[in-house]
């Protein structure tokens, strides 16, 4: 509903070609009162270097349902190494929605890792999902948990997490999270952690390269242990050296 | 050696045959032949499309006919119902008269009368159909009376009694194929009537059977052609609706008034159709007038004595006169007046009794209002007989209802409305109306409104592009999250329940950046990405289970060559003859790839073949499509709002369309998409500055230019029938347009914005006429359907 309203105000102010946009509560316009309205979209034909190249919008001025996602992506784009800023939930923001959107983005950014792993890791090399030799993990994406090869486990886990995060029964809306669905966050985080662990112990080069590019593990670790208590410190088996960023 | 010999012979009188020459000639001939073959092929498909189109049209007309018949049947039924009530009334009145013969007591019998009628109506309300038969039986003595009383000049009365007879004899509903014959039927006497009605029933059932058979698509144009007749029917149906409302009978009956129709069929019909044409709002008032007219004159015949009704005087303060004009003052609607006057050419209505009737109606209304819902109440107010509501008020209500109608028709898709042509007629709240709407909508085919059926949630970021398999219900979607997902929608139409959570059949991972464009062709998926590559993927076997083993062979090939984001991939529609894939990139070029050998065939930039590049690249392509009427041409739209057509054989520029009318040197006025009509020489462009433009390829001119959305238009898709198209825009809305009239048939607001990105893509299924998909900034894809059998 707010979406529709926003649209309406947009068009009104555009039609008026408005100097009145200052009074207008439309936040998009507030940012650029007297200038021409900035339109934030990647139009067809845009060059890759111009992708997402628009003035930042402050979080208070984001009022669409995708605002949290927009904001986190903005923070990551600004400085992917600034883990604390990225992960810390801003004041006034529902921390559950904040976690939800972070998990979505982590699943999204695991894509490149899966692609890199799929080149190296195949059932011949890693026929079971292991981190250290202590335990073998069973793939929970199936109706009945079963042993999968490492690459299958990784892909299934990411796909399963994405499905879960998009499941209408548990997460019907991105605006608020049902309290009963919160338990899934730690489940997802715990399983995703194993992918990192496997990469670290069995495909070190891939892990290091990926981490240098994205700092995703550092963010994930901070997010799920420090910022929100999603995985217990006991489960953390990757040594601290894996994290190229020291956030303590 | 061979060439030497040829060269030697040439001086001896042979024409200059040389081996290369012959070869060249043969090649030329072969090429010519191939070209012709393609042309034939195209012509053939064109004709086929045309054929199915015409067939669909015919079916549409037939459907329409059947619907009209249905309506007539309905109206007749309602008419009979009403008539029975009347006779009953009559009987009671007669009884009353017997009781009170003294002329001084005029007022009291009238009041009684009203009470009685009110009671009757409520009675009817409760037990509709069953009671009617009974009543007709019990009324038979009364009929004779009626006939005696009736004026011999009025055939109408006779017909009433004949209907009675027929009913009691045959116990079946009258079925009449056309209004005319329906009328005749009414006049048939007993035996003959039964026979005939049986015949008609048969014919009707036949037609119903035909109607139920899955129909082809209906053309809007053809329905428009029929508009006149449609309008009159809509008048009819609204008549029925209103009247029932007036009686405020909320049951399945198509109660009373319809008799108006079938009784004075032709003349009235025409009158109606002319006035109904204007607005749906005006028709109700007409009905009111007619309604008032009709019943009273019957009454009058029956009780000629009761000319002066004091009650009516009280109500109207109008002189007791037989002239209709006297009645008109309370009625403000001039149109109605005219109508009324026309009607009075037929048997002259009796004022007093009409007023009585009105009175009756009021009582009915008040009693009914308590039982009906808000909507009905409103309508009841509308249709209360003329003098009861002050005319101003009436007008207000009328206006309000018109407004409401408008709103509805814009919003579309309300359950109690159905469409004919462009117009949406509302049946206000009556259940009858709804059932009508259902029957009407079933055959509306093309005009049927699209309804959201399914939301596909699995992408994690903006979904930018969609593509349907050419025959199967497979959808490919490409997203900013770097993946393309394949959705199997085979269950669509098979299961009644709406499925909420659908997992993609496969997730294609491989691109290192957002997937900007997708295309399926013959079980191969093509994706273009911000990472400058185009990738091709196999469609996994349908038996593939969710979460099965990773199969590296799904990845087919990576086309590398572009140096910047690939914004569009399009494989050639004739897959078997041209193994061609075209890709447009923001490096300024369009590349053509061979999909068999994976070779790069040619590179076109803004000026054509790359080899003769003399100028700088002026703009990047934004979208490409194949020209469907000449598949050797490719259409490209550019950031500078120019559309160019290139010949893929020669690589030369074939045409440049004057599409940059509003270009202001910024990407804010660029063209986002360009599509070519499947059968017509028509190109449609979607502009960032809200325009949609139409171009005739034959003349190369802009036929039409219209502001289509509240924000940039991103995407277009033409319905497989070729008569409508859908557009999506950053205003988050999807609009359905008619191609011939360029009018908006429907608007849906569906996706939510991420930043300023609303709807990114809309796509009709290329061969199934009832599937539409859209995607946008909110990471979801949505599937719409118009409820036809697949």
UniProtKB/TrEMBL annotation, chain A:
Binding site for Zn(2+): 121, 126, 198, 203
Signal peptide start and end residues: none
Region (Disordered): 1-50
Keyword DNA-binding recorded: no
Keyword field: Metal-binding, Zinc
Biased composition (Low complexity): 7-33
Matching SUPFAM superfamilies: Mob1/phocein
Keyword Coiled coil: no
Pfam families: Mob1_phocein
Residues that span the membrane, as ranges: none
Protein name from the UniProt record: Mob1/phocein
Organism: Anaeromyces robustus
Biological classification of the source: Eukaryota, Fungi, Fungi incertae sedis, Chytridiomycota, Chytridiomycota incertae sedis
TrEMBL record, chain B:
Low complexity compositional bias, start-end: 267-295, 358-376
UniProt-listed PROSITE patterns: WD_REPEATS_1, WD_REPEATS_2, WD_REPEATS_REGION
Feature: compositional bias, Basic and acidic residues: 125-136, 318-327
Keywords: Calmodulin-binding, Coiled coil, Repeat, WD repeat
Record region (Disordered): 125-151, 250-376
WD repeats: 456-490, 508-539, 559-603, 706-747
Keyword Coiled coil: yes
Residue span, Striatin N-terminal domain: 19-145
Polar residues compositional bias, start-end: 137-146
InterPro entries registered for this protein in UniProt: Striatin_N (IPR013258), WD40/YVTN_repeat-like_dom_sf (IPR015943), WD40_PAC1 (IPR020472), WD40_repeat_CS (IPR019775), WD40_repeat_dom_sf (IPR036322), WD40_rpt (IPR001680), WD_repeat_striatin (IPR051488)
GO molecular function: calmodulin binding
PANTHER family, A to Z: CONNECTOR OF KINASE TO AP-1, ISOFORM E, STRIATIN
Family: Belongs to the WD repeat striatin family.
Protein name: WD40 repeat-like protein
